[in-house]
Amino acid sequence: MSRQKAAREPTLSAPSILCWLVLAVGTMSLCQAETTAPGKSSLARYIEIWNSGEIDRLDEIVAPDFTRHAGPDESCSSLDELKTIIVRTRVNWKRLEITVDDSVVEDDKGAYRGEFWGVHGQTNRIIQFPIMSMIRFRDGLISEEWIIGDNFLSLMVLGHELVPPGFEIVPPTQDAPPDESPDDRPEEER
To answer: Is 159 left (phi over 0), alpha (psi -120 to 50) or beta?
Structure first.
């Protein structure tokens, strides 16, 4: 009788536990995807537009009063100004491509880390540097962006010498001059 009783009681085998775990994790992922998908989708489309230059598609995902916080000549305070920046950037950088290595979207904020790659139009030099961006969403649209990239690296690759005001570039010498200052440390510390 103990065998019959054991056969009637439900048992959990390893495959059935695995099925329940997959179902639970899948349901949680689906719920999470539903809450973040619109922002992730807008972020992906935003990068696609930078890469393609199809600025008319921005109307679908960017707020009219969009604000971009960036370096000189890259900041703006409207959707129309953003379109101008994208066109100007794509004229100056041939074969421009922005790649995203990591991104996260939660509630009304998003962020991505990636790379800017392009061929400079005047010098034909390839430029590649890291970028990071924070994005804010409002009413389902991208309303604000803070972006930073390594602009100094791109200037150096283009052949610019970056010298602060008041400094002059001194050609390197073979040997450094001897240290003429006295060493005031006690002998045991030298």
So the answer is: left
CATH number, domain with residue 53:
3.10.450.50
Q: Are 68 and 83 in contact (CB under 8 A)?
A: no
CA distance 50 to 97: 8
Closest C-alpha to 62, from 74, 48, 93, 70: 48
DSSP secondary-structure letter at 60? G
- Taking alpha carbons only, the member of 113, 107, 160, 161 closest to residue 134 is 113
What tokens were used for 119? 């061929």
- Domain extent, residue 131, equals 34-164
Mean predicted confidence (pLDDT) in 11-22: 44
Q: What angle do CA 41, 141, 118 make, to 5 degrees?
A: 60
Scored b (16 or more CB within 10 A) or e, 41-50 reads: ebbebbbebb
| Strand ranges inside the chain, DSSP E | 62-69, 93-106, 109-120, 126-138, 141-149
pLDDT reported for residue 37: 59
Structure tokens at 136: 């804010």
Residues 127 and 116 sit within 8 Å (Cβ to Cβ): yes
Q: How many domains does the chain have?
A: 1
Q: Maximum Cα–Cα distance for the chain, whole Å?
A: 100
pLDDT at 91: 93
